[in-house]
Design goal:
heterodimer, A: 113 residues, mainly beta, seven-stranded mixed beta sheet, four-stranded antiparallel beta sheet, 11 strands, globular, B: mainly beta
Chain lengths: 113, 115
């Protein structure tokens, strides 16, 4: 899992609640990503950030929000607008957006109470 | 449209036998190709990639993959499987013409190695 940490490992969300997933990297990478993983499906890109204070929507951004105030940190908020949030969330980083290889954190499993 | 197909949801192999996990892709330009492995409740680990050059790419843990342009395939192989190779394997592709540098992921193949 390299130099990327995600917390918590498990997160429980009540209906109508916003929750925030943490992602920190010490690899000095410029680019960071959030993916959602559902059983039997490939990874789907939620948001990505190429540099500090910049981020772009991925394929399934609705119901999610992010910030990139520091190079090391890229937190993801799952808002109450996300009606089906139960999934495994993976954070990744790469040297730059154009760099070929992405490195992943250990993931956070989000469950709805 | 760019796509990746992993035609087998699950592959079962006896320990010590060779293994192959299949991947085919579709991109409009030249591809960058990747294999990642995921152990239960863990993040993905990078195994190997093809960017250019030799069609046979060697990676971590004794795995290798062969880029076949005519068949648009990038199958993952290992000469002798270990029980510890049991995991979920993902193939991914990036189109060199894509200015967004987006990775397209296959659905994953579960590899089960039986003692």
């Amino acid at each position: 899992d390299g130099g990327i940490t995600q917390s918590p490992k498990y997160l429980f969300r009540k209906e109508g609640q916003n929750v925030t997933l943490s992602c920190e990297q010490n690899l000095n990478h410029d680019a960071m990503y959030w993916y959602r993983q559902d059983p039997g499906q490939g990874l789907r890109l939620i948001y990505y950030s190429q540099i500090v204070n910049d981020f772009q929507k991925g394929d399934i951004a609705e119901g999610y929000s992010v910030s990139r105030e520091k190079k090391e940190s890229f937190p993801l908020t799952v808002t109450s607008a996300q009606k089906n949030p139960t999934a495994f969330y993976l954070c990744a980083s790469s040297q730059t957006r154009a760099a070929e290889t992405q490195y992943f954190g250990p993931g956070t499993r989000l469950l709805v109470l | 449209a760019q796509s990746v197909a992993q035609p087998e949801d699950q592959v079962n192999v006896a320990e010590g036998n060779p293994l192959t996990v299949k991947c085919t892709y579709s991109v409009s330009g030249n591809p960058y190709l990747f294999w990642y492995v995921q152990y239960p409740n863990r993040g993905l680990q990078f195994l190997l990639k093809y960017i250019t050059g030799d069609n046979l790419v060697k990676g971590s843990y004794g795995f290798e993959a062969e880029f076949n342009k005519s068949q648009t395939s990038f199958h993952l192989k290992k000469p002798s499987a270990l029980v510890s190779d049991s995991a979920l394997y993902f193939c991914a592709v990036r189109d060199l013409r894509d200015s967004n540098y987006q990775l397209i992921w296959g659905a994953g193949t579960k590899l089960i190695i039986k003692p």
